[in-house]
Amino acid sequence: MGFIDDAKDAADATGKKIGEWADDTKERISDKADEVKADAEVHRAEADVKKAEAERDSTQAKNEYKEDLRN
Strand, helix or coil at 71? Predict the structure, then answer.
């Protein structure tokens, strides 16, 4: 019976280790997905800033042109 119990314990330990590995892998994938989403959010924010700056510069140029026409 000792051999069978040892084999059962080894199988249980292996199963537990595989379960932990699967959970760790799932967590790593989730972490990477969160990181990619955060990077995408940063890129969107940077694009919004660039767009706002371009609109500001365009408005400023238009206003300067109109001011020159008034003079």
Answer: coil
